[in-house]
Amino acid sequence: MLPRNSLSSWQALTAHAKEMKNQYMKELFEDDKERFEQFSVQLPSFMLDYSKNIITKKTMKLLFALVKETDVEQWRDKMFTGEEINKTENRSVLHTALRDTSHKAVFVKGRDISEDVKTILIKIRAFSEKVREGKWLGYSGKRITDVVSIGVGGSNLGPQMVTEALEQYSDNSVKVHYVSNVDGTQIANVLRPLNPEKVLFIVSSKTFTTTETITNAKTAMQWLTSSSFDSSAVAKHFIAVSSNKANAIDFGILEENVFDMWDWVGGRFSLWSAIGLPIAIYLGFEKFSELLEGANEIDQHFCNAPIETNTPVILALLSVWNCTFLGAQSQAILPYDQSLHMLSAYMQQAEMESNGKSVNWNGQHIEYSTVPTIWGELGINGQHAFYQYLHQSNNIVPADFIGSVKSVTPVKGHHETLMANFFAQTQALMLGVDEQQVRADLKAKGRVDKYIDKVAPHKVHKGNRPTNTILLERISPHSLGSLIALYEHKIFVQGIILQICSFDQWGVELGKGLANEIQKELEEGNISNKHDSSTTGLIKFYQNYI
Ligand code: F6P
């Protein structure tokens, strides 16, 4: 297998990047009045403007050649048809089947999993309706008013991000709370105001071995049984979502209360499965279906649109261009929509757990830089915190700006202010302002030369900072589904281009293993002498104070 940097399109891009390093977007916009039309794509759910990147038609042509040379389309088809593209774990990658509204047959090890999808959707529908309609009763015969979803990583971030984004679409017949942290403060705070008679716990864990989740679930079970004085209450208050049915049953959850998951769904791509049960309960099954439909719309687009207008392909290429070829180290996700306040946390897991790796499919070291650090915050809050860095630091941080044409909660005057900032920021990041202009502006304000000499260098913004703009019509289950699927496929394409195994996560194992050993030592009060002196010193310091 040839390393990517030996491909002719890669080498052409390396040479082209040298030319483009001194190219100013401002000039590109001045030279081409059609630049926006040239570098934007409109889909039913959103518009993507990527014209504010350091690219020309030649750049995109070379990037599209890279897509061809790395067989992205063939890999995409392999994913959708159930080939085991997760090579290190010998698994298919079929989160797309969970939202295939046509339920086309797809086979995994000879089994048509579209049948499993239909079955689980029926189960999610029936169960969520029963809870929402007050027909699922707690141990004392009361209806469920609160769901506490216990899970971490992919078993938490997706459902929580979605339920919080779509709060305005809930009739609030059932409230949903999340516990992900093993820090007891979180579960204590969540449980304190709740009445055990009316709480349903959903323990979401694909493996059902995650220590933090099991610890939280045990605490929840104790809380329930100490109030009900009856262990049979567990049957009415505990549901599990897992591909490890045996462990869930061993834990004490009734078999019929375990919702299936499968190894062909990666944790960070699982909100479309029964892991999304809290979403269905909170919003109703109809809205959950709309979320799936929105994602399916992008699946269709990803499979059928030519690469030149294929939005996940374009986003992936721009990330590779900005990071691998132009040297950016991080990328910001900046939503200008309160609903998306958890999006960057969600995207951190989605992209960094998928592609934050340094060996290729053959296990060989990758010489080029791969994916950036993903970070971000709601745009307006960020403006008053870290945008200084985005505008003037020596490090270039490409950013995705995500906004909505209409607010889900219109409040007079607010949306205009929000969107004015949204538009102004990408413009400012692209245009910047040079010293000559800064001096002229200060002069026009009547400032004296001495002051101008002192301040002018500090007010220069070099500009030329790349951004993508994604504009949704409005946050809705459908458009949110599309947005998430857009990024999922972007991550997939990025992985193929960079030759990364996007669907495993071995990098989380080492720390987990060591934590298990140290926990045992802490419990037994017997600190091993095999730790380094820092770790031993810290543990001893901790022990002396407890
Ligand atoms: O530790 C990382 C991880 O394995 C993620 O990949 C996963 O989403 C999360 O933990 C939770 O795992 P599980 O659903 O098996 O509890």
TrEMBL record:
Main location: cytoplasm
Catalytic activity: alpha-D-glucose 6-phosphate = beta-D-fructose 6-phosphate
GO biological process assignments: gluconeogenesis; glucose 6-phosphate metabolic process; glycolytic process
EC nos: 5.3.1.9
InterPro entries, A to Z: G6P_Isomerase (IPR001672), G6P_Isomerase_C (IPR023096), Phosphoglucose_isomerase_CS (IPR018189), SIS_dom_sf (IPR046348), SIS_PGI_1 (IPR035476), SIS_PGI_2 (IPR035482)
Pathway: Carbohydrate biosynthesis; gluconeogenesis; Carbohydrate degradation; glycolysis; D-glyceraldehyde 3-phosphate and glycerone phosphate from D-glucose: step 2/4
Function description: Catalyzes the reversible isomerization of glucose-6-phosphate to fructose-6-phosphate.
Family per similarity comment: Belongs to the GPI family.
Stated name of the protein: Glucose-6-phosphate isomerase
